[in-house]
Amino acid sequence: MFEDRRDAGRRLAGCLRPDPDAVVLGLPRGGVPVAFEVAAALRAPLDVLVVRKLGVPAQPELAFGAIGEDGVRVINSSVVRHAGLDEAAMAAVEDAERAELERRVERFRAGRDRIPVAGRTAVIVDDGVATGATARAACEVARAHGARRVVLAVPIGAPDVAERFAGYADEVVCPYRPESFHSVGQGYRDFSQTSDAEVVELLGRLRNGSRRRGSHR
Length: 217
Prior knowledge:
about 220 residues; alpha/beta; five-stranded parallel β-sheet; 7 helices
């Protein structure tokens, strides 16, 4: 369906409506090359949304919450109650994830400040949605940062991706929803790993006002 993440980003951008209040937020690492093309096409600022989901210790894929920059913390009290988590267990998970979040922020931002999304449209971009846990956490964190509207934009996902994100995103844009969906990589001819250096370079390029697309691979 897509040659690579650049191609996916360009085609995804064509499905999005222009919004002068939009901030495009790529989920590192693989979502950033897609988000770069979306931001360039929409002439919107580009940033990363660094989030960590807080997994139940016995079931790490089951998130009881999420954390983001500037101390943002979102807790799902229903999951906490059903999993029987106490404050000590939650704190241990959060401490570990907060340390990892800070390491990633330092690595990807390279000293740049976060672009505020308060009162704006947060367009959250990844290279696709599989389990959806990270994308859901990203939507919750963007909302906690004050985003007026949250749009989840991904090139590929399951046929029911919009229904799965009801209550998390105001709009879901996903042009390729194969009936036999089993992984994000099935939609790409080239699904090679995105490096940390590429993430930093792409963020710096749009922040510096350059929208040249030919040399970021």
